[in-house]
Amino acid sequence: MAVKGKISVNTENIFPIIKKFLYSDHDIFLRELVANAEDASQKLQKLASMGEFNGELGDLNVKISIDKEAGTLTISDRGLGMTAEEVEKYINQVAFSGATEFVEKFKDEDTSNIIGKFGLGFYSAFMVSDKVEIVTKSYKEGSQAVKWSCDGSIEFEITDAERAERGSDIILYVNEDSKEFLEDHRISEILNKYCKFMPIPVIFGTETETIKEGEGDDAKEEKIEKEKVINNTAPLWTKDPKELSDEDYRNFYKELYPYGEEPLFWIHLNVDYPFNLTGILYFPKIKNDITQHQNKVQLYSRQVFITDEVKDILPEFLGLMHGVIDSPDIPLNVSRSYLQSDANVKKISNYITRKVADKLNSLFNSDREGFEAKWESIGLFVKYGMMSDEKFFDKAKKFCLYKNMDDKLFTFDEYKAKIEAEQVDKDGNHVFLYTTNPGQQHTYIESAKRKGYDVLKFDSMIDNHFVSNVEQKLEKVQLKRVDADTVEKLVEKEISMESLLSEDDQNKVVEIFKKALGNDNMDLQVQALPAEEMPVSIVLPEFMRRMKEMAEMQGGGGMFGMGDMPGSKNIVINANNPMVERILKSEDETAQNTLARHAYDLAQLSQGLLTGAELSAFIARDLEIMNK
Question: Within 63-167, where are the H helices?
Fold first, then answer.
């Protein structure tokens, strides 16, 4: 038999399109061809289980072999094989998926493990080949083996062939630009990336195995060469969670991330309605660098690796997790490289978010002490989720923890109760005071403590965003950094402290400081504060500081120039501090100016604003004052 003809395509330009645009990475051709071979093997297994095939299955596997002399790469299987008619139907009619028809024919049976649904996969071979041949023999009794050949045009030829066993050989005559795919190390790299969890054994190359015979003095070791199976055909996520131990999950994590730290805990996903989804998601130990934990979740479809770009399936904050998700219900385009948005993707995303929240809530309720011990890593993840996902926020506010300066952790409700007596302002708002830098803001923290206030630590990389975000969602709660105002105004009360200075004296003090600082336009305020508080304070109003920080994060001045906006800090003179009284009463103008400048520089020093020449001048002046 010899048949020649033209491949049924809508355009004669199909092959240039395939070669240049169909797949973003050329190495994907091997994934497609191995997946097809696995598909053919699984179909035969299914037919045997249903009594549609009564022959010997034997060892089902997929073999990859290289012949450098001939310049060929061959993918072989012992699956269904094809008749000449089936070759005509499935190969010559581009984008007709055999798996789709197979599932339709046996729709009342369980066909969930058929890879399929990948359409043009076979034709990806032409991305790297001048010519492709198929030598195939159907499992059907009495079938004649056939050979299909195509040189990358729309012309093909089918002839009779010799093949002893059922199955198929896909033979690629690798083109000059793709000789890398005739190198063992390159093929191993691709197989390890895409095929390491496929359900049928994938064989490539050989490995040495040492066999021990006999015991004691008679013991002998013999080294033998054996075919190398590169994949784990039954990865952990395909197994029943009830049969698995913690050690099994830790070992699988090491298999996925050989150099990663041990995970904190994990979630085993297993749902078959209203969509199919399996997988294992791990909570890694997250430090302050979020970026090193992103893009670590791998997406599979029936154990075939698709991508680690899962941002369209997982909410952004879940991208910090590690692990595997596997679903045949996630739609993929022809190259399997980009996810399409549809109802199932949204359902899957919501399901995973809910499972993660439920797991965290369960851990919090069952082992509060253990949960707190892991909070350094969990906290970044939880806060990220609360900012980016409303449904997660609703669940997480019950177990999100807030750490104070005594390193004690509280839930939101627990902390509200703790500060009820001292930190409720005249409008009934609970005022959460916080520090972003305990070292730099130590002076302000100590002032708050003397007032009987408690101070939270918000010093992680996302806390600036978290503060603004969470405040909008909580009723009758204000969050203020400890240097957002003077200690008397952080939590505003009906009763205010009385000033020891008259209004005239306050005006005089302002003029003295303006002259000493050489700035008539400086915005100075005089307030009655406790005597032990600093003579001068520099405070950064909460709203203005947040706007300034946001503008700086967006690249400098921002759209309103707030990165360098005036009035973003207030200078407050303490009317009740003895040093201010000394400055006011001094009759030596030089001494008066020196002390006023020094008081102002102390305020700058407390905010970390005193640097360079100003810092040197302050030190020299301080030595001069001490020596008098």
Answer: 84-90, 98-105
Parallel, antiparallel, or unpaired for β 570-574 and 524-527? Answer: parallel
Give the chain's end-to-end CA distance (angstroms, integer).
Answer: 114
Residue 601: alpha-carbon gap to chain centroid? 44
Q: Output the six-digit token pair for 169.
A: 């050989």
Burial (Cβ within 10 Å: 0-12, 13-18, ≥19) of residue 361: middle
Contact assessment for residue 540 and residue 481, using Cβ atoms and an 8 Å cutoff: yes
| DSSP line for 565-608 | -TTSSEEEEETT-HHHHHHHH---HHHHHHHHHHHHHHHHHHTT
Between vectors from CA 301 to CA 300 and to CA 307, what angle results, nearest 5°?
40
Global model pTM greater than 0.85: no
What is the overall mean pLDDT for the chain? 84
Q: Alpha helix (H) ranges present in 399-502?
A: 412-419, 442-450, 463-473, 487-490
CA angle 380-381-386, nearest 5°?
100
- In 3D space, the residue among 337, 285, 287, 282 whose CA is nearest the CA of residue 312 turns out to be 337
The DSSP bridge partners found for residue 602 are none
Q: Which is more confidently placed, 238 or 318? A: 238
Q: What is the DSSP letter of 2?
A: E
Contact in structure between 190 and 93 (CB atoms under 8 Å) = no
Tell me the β-bridge partners of 326.
278, 300
Residues in CB range of 51: below 8 A, 6 or more apart: none
Structure-token pair, residue 549: 């920080």
**What is the signed CA dihedral for 603, 609, 611, 614, rounded to 10 degrees?**
-50
Average pLDDT rounded to a whole number, residues 87-104: 60
- Each residue of 447-490: pLDDT tens digit? 999 999 999 999 888 888 899 888 888 889 999 999 988 888 89
Neighbours of 291 (CB within 10 A): 7
Sign of the C-alpha dihedral computed for residues 152, 157, 163 and 166 taken in this order: positive
Number of H helices and E strands in the chain, helices first, is 19, 22
Non-local (6+) Cβ contacts of 494 within 8 A are 426
Model confidence over 180-236: pLDDT tens digits?
999 999 999 999 999 999 999 999 999 988 887 777 777 788 888 899 999 999 999
How far lies 273's CA from each of 117, 310, 506, in Å?
20, 21, 74
Compute the distance between CA of residue 166 and CA of residue 145 in angstroms, rounded to an integer: 8
Q: Are 393 and 400 spatial neighbours (Cβ–Cβ below 8 Å)?
A: no
User: What's the one-letter identity of residue 54?
Assistant: N
**Residue 416 in contact with residue 430, Cβ under 8 Å?**
yes
Of 233, 162, 243, nearest to 201 by C-alpha is: 233
Residues pairing with 339 in the sheet = 332
pLDDT of residue 103: 47
Q: Are 309 and 316 in contact (CB under 8 A)?
A: no
